[in-house]
Amino acid sequence: MPYMLFMAFLVLLPLVLIGIYAFTDMQGHFTIHNFLLFFSKSEAVNTFIYSIAIALLTTMICLVLGYPAAYIMAMRSFRTPAVIAMLFILPMWINFLLRTIATVELFHMFNLPLGEGALLFGMVYDFLPFMIYPIYNTLQKMDLSLIEAAQDLGANRGKVFTKVVLPLSAPGIYSGIVMVFMPTVSTFAISELLTHNKITLFGSLIQRSFGEGGTTMWNYGAALSLIMLVIIAATSFFGQGDADVDNQKGGLL
């Protein structure tokens, strides 16, 4: 019952309110004008596409950097995985806004320009641990006898990794991708701080709709939020389907 109440008041009710605002006008009448307004604004559509691209690029960088780190931490022969884990955990003890402000000061200290490069750096810095730990937890639980069996059958290190380790770590990779992609595609504070509002992401459009002009833009902001929610839900659904297929293939192999 406590979990049901939590879901009802803090998850379902806000989603219902977003849907109501998205499909109504200021007088409470049903309309799809809010969605048509979004698609009629080329700036809003371009911002949405750019936000998706930035989120995908951030996710790919986190995967390229995070998988080797998780693999090293999960190796049984490695004696200090806890030290590396602590190095990734320590920054998360500080609020992400403070970390972002500190990143801005570091760029000022080294006379580096704030822009798209700084935005990607800040995104990766803030969300890299969310890629590492799901993969690390999956690899840590992997049955090492499967690797030994593959080696006994003559598989080299490359074959062992591509045929055994990588398929078995697919659930962790999927979880890491979702945990990085979902917040990066909707964030706004990081882009505003690390670019001095020179780069606008889709989350910034949503925030401005709710934060500026009183309640006159709430319906439009709710429509933008619903569009973002549908895209994220679709991405998660298709990603889960691909992960299930990969797991089935790995089991057959």
Secondary-structure blueprint:
Blueprint: H1 2-22, H2 33-40, H3 42-74, H4 81-89, H5 96-109, H6 116-140, H7 144-152, H8 157-168, H9 170-186, H10 189-195, H11 202-211, H12 218-252
Helix pairs in contact: 1-12, 2-12, 3-4, 3-6, 3-9, 5-10, 6-9, 6-10, 7-8, 8-12, 9-12, 11-12
Note down, in words, how this protein is organized:
This protein has 12 helices and no strands. The chain is an all-alpha fold and 253 residues long. It has one domain (42-252): MetI-like (MetI-like fold, Orthogonal Bundle), CATH 1.10.3720.10. 26% of the residues are buried. Mean pLDDT is 85; it is low at 248-253.
What is the fourth-level CATH superfamily? MetI-like
Q: Which whole number gives the mean pLDDT?
A: 85
What integer value in Å does the Rg equal? 22 Å
Structure class: mainly alpha
The CATH architecture name reads: Orthogonal Bundle
Instruction: Pick out the low-confidence regions.
Output: 248-253
Biggest β-sheet, characterized? none
General form? globular
Taken in chain order, the helices and strands follow as HHHHHHHHHHHH
What percent strand?
under 5%
Number of strands: 0
Helix content: over 70%
How far the N terminus sits from the C terminus, by CA atoms, comes to 43 Å
What is the tally of helical segments? 12
Q: Might you state the CATH topology name?
A: MetI-like fold
Q: How many domains comprise the coordinates?
A: 1
CATH class label: Mainly Alpha
